[in-house]
Design goal:
By secondary structure, the chain is mostly beta strands. Helix content is about 15%, strand content about 40%. The protein has a single domain, classed as Lipocalin. Strand 5 and strand 6 form a beta hairpin.
Length: about 150
Amino acid sequence: MTYRLGVCLLLTIGLTACDKVPANGNLDGMWQLMSVETPDSISPKQAERLYLSFQLGMTYWTRQGKGERFFSHFTHTRDSIIFYDLCFPAQHSFADPDDHLVSPDTIRAGVLDIWGIHTADMRYAVQTLTSGSLVLEKADTLLRFRKF
């Protein structure tokens, strides 16, 4: 009897030990920006083909078909996401290690406007996070994503 129990226990451990659990739960994976909503308007973004991928502590932002891409670090708590150290690797030589970091002036110049980001403060409240839907809020702007 104990032999069978031991074998079952070893099989159970062996079969589940190799299963990878997403480091960020439902947040991990690729998300498509569907709309940017303000009190005055809703701006559909699906045709823009804007994607945001989360993996470990990094994000990959891309605009498919336009060659625009950048990376950032992020921290995620239950009710917020903070993006920081934005990096545009395709547009810089990296001669200076800090040359690739985006300054607040660059953000104000409109680099991230298409994403609904108009401020250097990249802290967003998480309104919704499920396996298929992500809604981020900043002031009175909502960014709606779907899992892709």
